[in-house]
Design a protein that fits this description.
The protein is mainly α. The protein has helices at 16-22, 27-33, 40-58, 62-79, 88-101, 103-124, 131-159, 185-193, 196-212, 217-241. It contains ten helices and no strands. The model is unreliable at 1-12 (pLDDT under 50).
Length: 242
């Protein structure tokens, strides 16, 4: 927490659990009071919660994920009739089950990687942000994305996994209203990009960069937008060539 004069005040008055609540409606306050804090403890909490949610969503998302995999397999066979895909489903299921156990590791790696991108983008934009601060921002910004998994669990249970023919049906974007069997890859990509949880995530990143990096919000938003474009390039290229 910061005083008017800019001097640091003890952070012990506000617990970590309060950060994870406040980040939903007062991210500026969270970043202001944690600007000098370390990232390891919140990163550990996020990784553990992500792993727990992964186990919770694995069975619910199994049916729509399998439908998407079969759809991709049919497309591969259509383009390459001689392709042997007899063991593809078993291999995909095995990989999926293994990845559930390593969700926390991947989430932590993503936060660290994104933090490095925030640090580099901030430096290019003239900010004095540190690598530690970049990872801290990326870690707290993961919290709204975790809430997306909670919403998916609730909606998946309410609708029934057997009634979901694609993971896009659980997204909070226009893609949930499109037919995955008829819509092109590019249309699905564009529709999926306008996702409420993704936008929320980007906004929190920009706020964190502006507060901790002492940057104008417009410049911070431009940096985050640039990072989003870089992260989206692989999917965009895949959709364009698919």
């Amino acid at each position: 927490m910061m005083t008017v004069s800019g001097e640091a005040v003890s952070e012990e008055k506000v617990g970590l659990w309060e950060d994870f609540v406040d980040i939903f409606y007062a991210p500026s306050e969270v970043f202001a009071r944690r600007r000098a804090a370390g990232f390891w403890m919140p990163l550990l909490v996020v990784a553990v919660v992500a792993t727990i949610l992964s186990f919770g969503t694995s069975r619910i998302l199994e049916a729509p994920a399998d439908a998407d995999a079969q759809r991709q397999t049919r497309e591969m066979v259509r383009e390459n009739p001689e392709l042997d895909v007899s063991g593809a489903r078993t291999m995909t299921e095995t990989i999926g089950e293994v990845l559930v156990w390593f969700t926390g590791f991947f989430v932590a790696a993503m936060a660290i990687g994104l933090g490095l991108m925030l640090w580099l983008g901030g430096k290019i934009a003239g900010s004095a942000i540190s690598v530690r601060a970049g990872i801290l921002i990326a870690t707290y910004a993961m919290v709204p994305r975790l809430s997306e998994a909670v919403v998916a669990i609730v909606e998946g249970l309410a609708r029934g996994p057997s009634n979901l023919d694609s993971l896009s049906r659980l997204s909070w974007s226009p893609a949930r209203f499109l037919d995955p069997d008829t819509a092109s890859d590019m249309v699905m990509f564009v529709a999926s990009a306008v996702d409420l949880f993704a936008i929320w995530w980007l906004v929190v990143l920009a706020i964190g960069l502006a507060v901790i990096g002492n940057m104008p919000r417009a410049r911070a938003a431009a940096v985050v937008a640039g990072i989003w474009v870089v992260l989206s390039l692989p999917a965009l290229i895949g959709a364009a060539t698919g």
